[in-house]
Structure formats: C-alpha cells, structure tokens
Amino acid sequence: MNEATSATTSTLTSNRKRAMTTQDGPPLHNFCTDNWTWNKRDKSHEVQLCGANLKTAHFHPNWSNGTAGVRGTRILNRGLFYWEINVTQRIFGTSMMFGVGTKKARLHIDSFVNMLGEDKYGWGLSHKGLLWHNGKWRQYTKPFRENEATTVGLLFDGIKGTLTYYKDGYNLGVAFTDLHLVKDELYPIVCSTAAKTEMSLSNTKREFGNLQDRCRAVILNLLRQASDIRELSLPNAVKLYLSEGTEQNLPSERPCKGATRHNYFMRSSSCGPHRIGSLKNYLVV
Questions:
Q1: Among residues 9, 68, 22, 29, which one has the least CA distance to residue 164?
Q2: Is residue 53 within 8 Å of residue 252, measured between CB atoms?
Q3: Which of 130, 261, 268, 284 yields a CA-CA distance of 20 to 30 A from 247?
C-alpha cells in the first residue's frame, strides 16, 4: 500500500468512526426556520425549478450534454445556517455536487466536470465522496450508492468559517475551513451532470440573530397560517415584521408531479402547534 492510498484509507476510516459515534443530525436547538429558495434568475438553462416555492431543481429534463447548476437566494456570510438537499434515486454520472460558492462560480458548462470547486470561487462535495476547491480534490467520504435516494445536510458556520456535511443524518465531519476569510458573498449551490435528476431543498434553518428574531419565531409558530397575522392586535409595523419572517413572499410555481406543498409559515422546532386564540389573548394591547 503506497503513501497516498494509506492516507485515503485513514481519512475514510476516520470519517466512518466519526459518523458512528456522532449523534444524528446537527445541533439546531438555537435555530429557527430560514425562508429561502433556489434563484430562478441565477441558474443554468438546463435547470427547471418547480414545486412549493421553487424548492425543487430538476436537472437536464430531456438529456444531458454538460453540467448544470443553480444558486440559492440565501447569503451565508457571517451567519450560522443549515439546510438539506433531498436527492432522488437517480444518483449516477460524472458528478452531482452540493456546496457553496460566490457569484463568480459558473453554473453551466458544456462538458461533464466537477463544476463546483473547479476554481477558487466554489467549495463542493461530489456524490463520489470527493471534496473540490480551487481545481483540487481530496477524498472525504465513501461514494454514494448509485440509484438510491439520499439526503445531504450542510452546516455553514460563517463565524468559524467551516462547512460540515451530513448524510442521512450522520455527521461526516468538517469539510472546508477558512470560509470566514472569503470577502465575496457566498451562496448555497448544487449542480449535476446526470439527466433527469432532482434535488429538493428542505429543512432550511438559521441561528437566531437576536431576541427580537427569536420572539418572531415563537409568535409565528403559534399561528395556523400567515394570514392570521392580520387578526393580531398589534401595530402595523410589528405585523409587517412578522410577515417578513414567513414564506408568503417567496416565488411560487406549479408543483412538480407528485410534489407536496409545505406549510408556508415559520416553524420553530422548540414549540408545538397552538391555536391563534391563545396568542391573541396573550398579545392584546
């Protein structure tokens, strides 16, 4: 066994041990729902957006002759964010990638490449278990099983400058560092070379920004739907602030076949559902 093979084996073993000993899922106790989606104006022409609030990206709907990507609407710098990508069972091809990048990262190439991380503007994980940045790759985890649906979680820490991946709830370890040093705005990005593949955005979370932000999340969790905000005995400015925390202003499009619509108001994992009546009594002025 040569030195390179030994190093790769050691990395894989370390990641597997970390996955087996790490509690499932990221630590999200101080997080609330974060409302963002894929950017319909910032994508390859080979990506179709559909589903609830454009959260499903359908790659190469007819056939593939290159690599296509789409950028998210969320700016990540200096924040703590988590999101998941649900990948359908069509996992195959040269490269299906998940990660982050700046506005300078390409979103379409007429060839089959590892596009996210081909240069200094992107940081990506491919379905073959490789991490890519600045045109260089390294082994990170074992390849995904082909033709088997999976969920990829990404935890971005803009304070520490790290990006950590999760696969089906298991922590794969820190993949990239020094992201807090990036001056340009960073966004979530996914891309694929494989035809008729789908990646759906879900479980988008962010850390509370301040006490006001936390209070808004709690209030919205008590409502059945965003339209109930109008019934609250609150100043219009406060109602507007509450509305800004919902998904009602996100772009919408006819759902993909078989897609299910998500609730369009913010949910906090720390609170259960309550009736609006109790909230109105509590907030009456």
A1: 22
A2: yes
A3: 284
Cβ(48)–Cβ(61) below 8 Å: yes
* Rounded distance between C-alpha atoms, residue 70 and residue 42, angstroms: 6
Q: How far apart are CA 101 and CA 134, in angstroms?
A: 11
Distances (CA, A) of 84 to 120, 160, 183, 260, 281: 24, 20, 25, 16, 36
- Measured distance CA(91)–CA(151) in Å, rounded: 12
Q: CA dihedral in degrees (97, 133, 115, 153; nearest 10)?
A: 20
Summarize pLDDT for 228-241 with one digit per residue, the tens.
Answer: 999 899 999 999 99
pLDDT in tens, 134-160: 999 999 999 999 999 999 999 999 999
Q: Per the structure block, which two tokens stand in for 11?
A: 């990395």
Q: Nearest 5°: CA angle at 28, between 184 and 180?
A: 20
User: Under CATH, what is the fold of the domain 31-207?
Assistant: Jelly Rolls (2.60.120)
Residues belonging to the chain: 285
SS3 179: helix
